[in-house]
Amino acid sequence: MTAFEVFDVYADDDAAMRELRGLLARCSDATLRSRCHGGTPGAARLLLEALPSRADQLTVAAWTEQSMVGIASMLFDAGGIEIAVLVEDAWQRHGAGTALATRLGEEAARDGALAVTASVSTTNTAGIGLLRKVFPALALAAPRSGLITAVCPVVTGAGR
């Protein structure tokens, strides 16, 4: 398994934003649709590129020595905390998603959250597997409109 460095991503960091655009360009349309639950790949790229500029969330990225290979966000709203992860196709199943989800779980625990949620397509078995790995006590709600909501209890050192 590859070691990944996970760093916060900010909209005013030009180098990180260039890397993010490159990451999104390398993602297949299917990967983008899976992360954004439908829509067009172009709209998904625009939405994901705007993540670091949102004040109501934390955006982190997984890096290899060469480039950014994944991005994840933790959205804070009145309903709780929702997390989402995107890993470029060539780096899926190499540990980048685990590194990103673990970091978000640790951040949520530090913030005093008891759980985070994630919406996953019913066909995204790898995404559900990732959540089970990082948040072993997760509970899956009945599918609705092709999505499963996972309620993921957080603990310090999630996934380790």
Could you explain how this protein is built, in words?
- The protein is an alpha+beta fold.
- 34% of the residues lie in helices and 28% in strands.
- The protein has five helices and seven strands; from the N terminus they run E-H-H-H-E-E-E-H-E-H-E-E.
- The protein has helices spanning 14-26, 29-36, 41-49, 96-110, 125-134, and strands at 5-8, 57-63, 68-77, 80-87, 115-121, 139-140, 147-153.
- The chain has a four-stranded antiparallel beta sheet with strand order 1-2-3-4, sandwiched between helices. Strands 5-7-6 form a three-stranded antiparallel beta sheet.
- It is globular and about 40 Å long.
- The model has no long low-confidence stretch (mean pLDDT 90).
Biggest beta-sheet profile = 4 strands, antiparallel
What sort of overall outline do the alpha carbons produce when their principal axes are compared? globular
Helix and strand content put the structural class at alpha+beta
Query: Radius of gyration in whole Å, from Cα?
Result: 14 Å
Percent range of helical residues? 25-40%
> What is the CA-CA span between the terminal residues?
15 Å
Structure annotation, total helices: 5
Strand content: 25-35%
Strand/helix succession: EHHHEEEHEHEE
Give me the count of strands.
7
Mean pLDDT: 90
Poorly predicted regions: none
Q: What is the strand arrangement across the widest sheet? A: 1-2-3-4
